[in-house]
Design goal:
Aminopeptidase, globular, 24% strand, 2 domains, 445 residues
Length: 445
């Protein structure tokens, strides 16, 4: 059985031995370590794990931008605490036995093993009114091995180490949302194994059975969309166009003929403030009012777009960048901004994260051309996939307005395959308060 640690803040210290032997590590608390083999006599040595190495593991195992190091830093800018966990096969572990690396006390002891095999980044959230805290882990835990035995073992480790530390922090429950897919109802096959003999019911999976058997409670609504549409953009542009609905191809050409212009804007550009203001105007006055969709505060979008400028070259682990990059795309018609979207690139996947449109000049089909230019941009960045980040289908658990059906139709017109994840699961740490919380949530919905 492997041992576990929580990685909260990474360690910035360059001399671990000095800190362990009496130096004050508190001012150097921003780095964590995993061992690698290769020294003389097969003794382990330490490799620094920083932002790049954290992202490397996430990308190497197909993880989401929501688990990237930068996403955690972004959450911290809004006053939320971020906790990074791993089995880590740690070379060092907190002497207090909790595996929690705190900002005020740090003492590590040596254990054996040699690599990270699962990790998860949690964000601390506060429940309104009752002011109780919970930890939220979007699109994770992320596993380096996909076998059933390893999955069960990793979940047991996570429950133990996260549960111990979360209780000390007064946390009501912790929530996970792994990117594990459910049964593909259209093919009748389990997409993980493609086993024709699978007896799992449509919409169910062995993963759900494992999670509930370990004490997790499935929540019947989404935090991030559990159903999405992913477009393979390795194909040539001509093939991508050919696989679209013919009306979508027509609308793209129509927008071009009408003179719609698409522009890409980054946070460092001189006209960024101008176009960002236009984007937020469309969010608050256009899409939000027309579709009655809640939106984030203005600063939330701006700080996302500021996660942009990197001084390090991309690693191209999966064909794209290992750092998180947000870009604003705007569509102008007759010198007016009539549509604007935010796209995030992480590794070989580009995600269409936020969008807004005007109610004016809808006849020029600007959103179609805007999406197509974003897809072309993603290909230029070395991406292999373009994620439309949210649709509704027969697997959708929560009730959504008719506007979501329109969004889904629009996205499906570009082609792509549906991905259906198992959703989100809570692990209660205070059963009484958790019961009250779920009851209130049920009444609200």
């Amino acid at each position: 059985m492997t041992r576990s640690v929580i990685l909260t803040q990474p360690w910035r210290g360059k001399d671990l031995a000095g800190s362990a032997q009496g130096g004050d590590p508190r001012s150097e608390l921003n780095r964590f370590f995993v061992p690698l083999r290769g020294t003389q006599n097969d003794k382990s040595f330490l490799m620094e794990i920083n932002k790049q190495n954290w992202n490397n593991f996430i990308l190497a195992n197909g993880g989401s931008f929501l688990q990237s190091f930068e996403w955690g830093e972004f959450q911290e800018k809004f006053g939320r605490r971020v906790f990074r966990f791993s089995n880590c096969h740690p070379e060092y572990r907190n002497k207090f036995g909790t595996g929690f690396i705190s900002g005020s006390q740090e003492a590590l002891k040596q254990v054996k093993d040699d690599k990270i095999e699962w990790c998860a980044q949690f964000v601390e959230m506060t429940i309104p009114i009752i002011k109780k805290k919970y930890w939220y882990c979007p699109r994770a835990p992320l596993l380096g091995v996909q076998s059933l035995e390893f999955k069960v073992q990793s979940l047991k480790e996570l429950i133990k180490i996260v549960g111990e530390s979360a209780r000390k922090e007064g946390v009501l429950f912790f929530r996970i949302g792994p990117e594990w897919t459910i049964l593909d109802c259209h093919s009748g096959l389990d997409p993980e194994s493609r086993n024709p003999g699978s007896h799992i019911k449509c919409g169910m999976t062995e993963d759900i059975t494992i999670l509930t058997g370990l004490g997790f409670k499935q929540i019947h609504y989404d935090i991030e969309p559990s159903q999405t549409l992913v477009l393979d953009i390795v194909k040539p542009e001509e093939e991508l166009l050919a696989e679209m609905h013919e009306k979508w191809r027509y609308n793209i050409r129509l927008a071009e003929r009408k003179g719609v212009k698409v522009k890409m804007v980054s946070a460092g550009d001189s006209d960024f403030e101008k176009y960002f203001e236009e984007f937020y105007r469309l969010v608050s006055e256009g899409t939000s009012m027309r579709h009655q969709i809640k939106h984030h505060p203005k600063e939330y979008y701006k700080k996302q777009l500021q996660i942009n400028n990197s001084t390090q070259p991309p690693l191209n682990l999966r064909g794209g960048e290992e750092e998180l990059k947000f870009t604003l795309f705007i569509a102008e018609y007759e010198n007016k901004v009539i549509a604007a979207n935010i796209v995030v690139v992480f590794g070989s996947c580009a995600t269409y994260l936020h969008g807004a449109t005007s109610n004016e000049n809808r006849e020029v089909m600007a959103p179609h051309l805007l999406q197509w230019e974003q897809i072309k941009y993603a290909r230029q960045q070395g991406c292999a996939e373009y994620d439309f980040f949210g649709i509704v289908n027969e697997h959708t658990l929560d009730k959504r307005g008719a506007s979501w059906e329109g969004f889904t139709r629009f996205k499906k017109g570009f082609g792509g395959r549906e991905e259906n994840y198992i959703g989100y699961f809570d692990y209660p740490l205070d059963k009484f308060w958790y019961f009250i919380y779920r009851l209130v949530q049920k009444l609200r919905r």
